[in-house]
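Researcher: Here's the sequence for the chain we discussed earlier.
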Amino acid sequence: MYFNKILLAGLFLSIAPLLFSQKDSSKTDEDWDWHWEEWDDWEDWNVDFGFSKTRPAISLQYGISDMSRTDVQSQFVDPNLFELKLGYVKDKDAWDTDYIIKQNYNYLYLSNESNKLAGKEAVGTEIESDMWRFGAGWSSGYGYKLGENSSIVPYYSYALNWSNIDFTYPDVWTFAPDPDQEILNLYDESFRFGTSSEGGVRVKVIENLMFDAGYERSIVFQRHLFWKWAGSALIEAAAQGLLDGFINKIFRSSPDAGPIVNFLLKNALSYGIYELRQDKMNWPFPSEAPIAYDQFKFGVTVVF
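Model: Thanks. This is the structure I predict for it:
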């Protein structure tokens, strides 16, 4: 969906000079004014990158996490998280119905994940961690109107981020360094690139208030190999694009089932891809394993 917007904007920018340079001298200014009025009606082009008719929103989320890396044998103390999002929400009727809506939520976010938030401390050789993360995310989903100012929207989201993790190692490692420490030192107190995907349900109870619950899978890269990451991301985007075409046909034939099918298929694909990335962060290309977070999140969003 996001690649489609970028492609459409690029296509428009590439042909715009040709359109405006080939004005027919035989036409009057009134003729051209008429055509511009027609152009103004083409709202569905949506080349504004999703910011038209949006409303500012603030989200607060709290969650529980499971932290791991497949080639690290030591156990992590599982952290909890607190997250703040600032962004824009856009709701609109979809598929020529008065009961199905499409919701987009584009945002910037800052989060902290720490075992201190969970009230846990290391036992034995467990590893404590404190991570700060910031980035940008894009959420989209189709849902059902429950009333004039209420709705339920199952959604799919994708985010890019940078993380800084501070590890606290077991005291015993001071006297006998562990092989796991060599791996974790590559992350310790350094900014690392990462990505995440989330599926969940957002419920609007009144015009300005929404509650949400979701499951997020995120990875932190040991190092950012741009071309391998871009190749992996392109494969994921292409697969999601093929799903969009299939889902659109379902909406045309059975719009009532569309929001649920959209939610299940897009999140199932994302879950499978992130499962493949547990051993190769840039799957299918040769690469190291990432640090992975699996987390349940619950929150509230205020829309202005």
